[in-house]
Amino acid sequence: MSYSIAEAARRSGLSIDTLRYYERIKLVEPPARDAAGRRAYTDEDLGWLGFLTKLRLTGMPIKRMREYASLRHHGAASAGRRKAILVDQRKSVADRIAELQTCLAILDYKIDHYDQVERKVLGTGATMEGISA
């Protein structure tokens, strides 16, 4: 199965400009071309784009993504380094999650506090939002 650049963009959630940019900076290999010379993306290409999207969502810098992309062409010989990159990124994501969980706990605490304030002010279980509606 092959996909035009517009279809690859739609399926991957990336823009056409981003697909071209990723090709230009060597995050993706130039896709095959159809008889008319247009890019023809494969399911494998879309899988790789999906993985790159997840790496970006983790906050991985483009430079590190480029290193990873380059290493994958070396096959099993580069597995150790690729794993190390992913382990490092996983730690970064876990640290960020812990930080966000702390922020969530603070928000929950403050929301609870305001629930108590509302109950005291109103003298009932009603909320301020319910009264203003």
UniProtKB/TrEMBL annotation:
State the Gene3D superfamilies in the record.
Answer: 1.10.1660.10
Which terms are listed as keywords in the entry? DNA-binding
Its taxonomic placement starts with: Bacteria, Bacillati, Actinomycetota, Actinomycetes, Pseudonocardiales
State the Gene Ontology terms under molecular function.
DNA binding; DNA-binding transcription factor activity
Q: What is this protein called?
A: MerR family transcriptional regulator
Q: Where is the HTH merR-type domain?
A: 1-71
